[in-house]
Amino acid sequence: MTDHAGLEEPAELEPDQGSLDLASPDDTWTAADWEAQAAAVLRKARRMTDEDPDDLVWKKLTRTTLDGIPVTPLGTHSLLDGLETSGRPTRSGDWDVRARVDGSDAKRANEEALVDLDGGVTSLWLTGATDYAVALKDVLLDLAPVVLDGGDPQAFLAYAEGRELHPETNLGVPAADATADLARQALERGIRAFVVDASAIHDRGASDVQELGWSMAAAAAYLRTLTGAGLSVAEAAGLVEFRYAATDEQFTTIAKLRAARRLWTRVLELSDGSGEMRLHAVTSRPMMTKYDPWVNMLRTTVAAFAAGVGGADSVTVVPFDSPLGRPDAFGRRIARNTSHLLIDEAHVAHVADPAGGSYAVEKLTDDLARAAWATFGRLDDGADLDAEIEKVVAERERQVATRKRPITGLTEFPNLGETLPVRDGEPDDVRRYGASFEALRDAPPASPVHLATLGTVAQHTARATFATNLLAAGGIAVSAEPARVACVAGTDAAYDEQGAETAAQLRANGAEWVIVAGQPRDWADDSCAMGVDALDFLTRTREKLA
Question: Which top-level group of life is the source organism from (predicted)?
Fold first, then answer.
């Protein structure tokens, strides 16, 4: 397992100067033509100047993942030079719609499970259950696979004694705890027994590459354990399921799941074996928000779409209201119907590999696989991933704080007047990406900021709206009435003409701290503009309000 040949580090993107290889032979567009058109749009948006060369658009539009992997703004045939893009196994047919059921309250779990199954769910992910007779009452175990999580596999097998089990039933034991005895019991029953749950380190803040690399290291250790106990590689591979998180970054999610299959195939090849990967995708819990939770429906829909396109065999959509407590019937219905809409209405599952052949996705798949293989190699040789995850967490926090990684409904377009749905029970025990902003919203200041606008509505509306939304992200309301903290919003010309006088008048009316919406001015105590560390700015402002 220490032979990591066949996969290398990803290469950086270079501008493609050739033909775009468009569908029609009459098309003669080149990369330079695209650069000119894209540059014109960026100049209009003031993201480029007239003096900037057109090919700067590659740098401006290329997004870099937290792993440092560039995501191209334009897929071209040259991206596939030297890449292997065929022979990747993927799902065929509809994916399994899997509902997550909290089994801590067995009676309620049973009620939710039966409603979900009646509503079209095709398998159950049962967490924390101990009383299987109650939790699974009237569940047809031969038709609906049950995947355990945190339960007692022996108690489940005893409960299911004499009953036929669906072959995708999984005892849910972490791969790190795999034993030959449990493996043989599962083989006798014709079911699976183990899970490589990479979503667990995703929940800790890991990147896509770290999630993939960790899963392969865990899977390699699992193979060693079971083959060392006498099982064949094929037998061991057939007993395990992989679980990954699907986020609303659709292209990286698609590529991540496709890369996972490629990586597992390579691990099995190096182990002198073969087998297919059983892949379960669950929509990310950290990407969700407690505030404006309705936006979670959009996030999970994009994530479920990406999971389906990426080839997941099973997809779990986390209900939108999970950050508020135990999801209610409406949240669970929306969650399961998300997959049904994608499968039955959008027909996403009717193509075996929708992303296959896409220049951009193939390139990203290859880059993720190569980077993950390098991470797997380090872990397989004894490296510790914790420090690397901490660096990713810190960088993500920085991007969220500066709103370079916006979170709709929380850091962008917050609604201070919303009434949150009430849910019983405890919310998911995971630190969400917007946790720092949620903490500010949890304890809003009692006093608002006085918004002082200069000029006409047309002149001040852009900066006034920007400042209002920024302040709301920290739980701070604005008011037209005088207050201890004031924010001036207008044009640069208005600031030159009236700024100092306005600030003086505000101070005379009781303002102790004056903010300017825009670049710093000598008459203001603070400023806020695009790119500001919003978390730092909001913390300072709240201190002044206190």
Answer: Bacteria
